[in-house]
């Protein structure tokens, strides 16, 4: 084996958690999580549903938080970061 080939990075893009546009049911949180971990989206959706039932609805809050924090595929910032940036820009101009 060539030592140079072993030391070269295999992927130039960092692996990033995003909400996917394809395969989404609501906001793409479960399909994006599944793509990130390399599992079937149905398993992630099932786990989210079980978590929601076992925690008396706390899974819904986690899902909403994830939808706000995880950026959409193709975007650099999340919905929450966009809102923070708008508020900061608005305060700077006043």
Compact overview of the structure:
The protein has 94 residues and is mainly alpha-helical.
Q: Which stretches of 5+ consecutive residues score pLDDT under 50?
A: none
How many strands appear in the DSSP assignment?
0
Oligomer designation: single chain
The percent range for helix content is 55-70%
What characteristic shape results from the CA principal axes? Answer: flat
Quote the average pLDDT. 85
Run of helices and strands? HHHHH
Query: Taking Cα atoms only, what radius of gyration do you get, to the nearest Å?
Result: 18 Å
C-alpha termini separation: 62 Å
Strand content: under 5%
Structure, described:
This protein has 94 residues and is mostly helical. The chain is built from 5 helices and no strands. Helix 2 crosses helix 3 (41-54). The model has no long low-confidence stretch (mean pLDDT 85).
Indicate the topology:
Blueprint: H1 3-7, H2 29-37, H3 41-54, H4 58-69, H5 79-93
Descriptive labels:
mainly alpha; single chain; 94 residues
């Amino acid at each position: 084996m060539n030592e140079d080939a072993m030391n070269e990075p295999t992927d130039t893009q960092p692996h990033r958690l995003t909400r996917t546009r394809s395969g989404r049911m609501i906001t793409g949180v479960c399909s994006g999580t599944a793509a990130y971990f390399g599992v079937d989206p149905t398993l992630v959706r099932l786990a989210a549903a079980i978590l929601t039932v076992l925690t008396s609805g706390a899974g819904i809050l986690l899902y909403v938080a994830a939808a706000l924090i995880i950026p959409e595929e193709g975007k650099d910032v999340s919905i929450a970061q966009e809102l923070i940036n708008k508020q900061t820009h608005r305060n700077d101009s006043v």
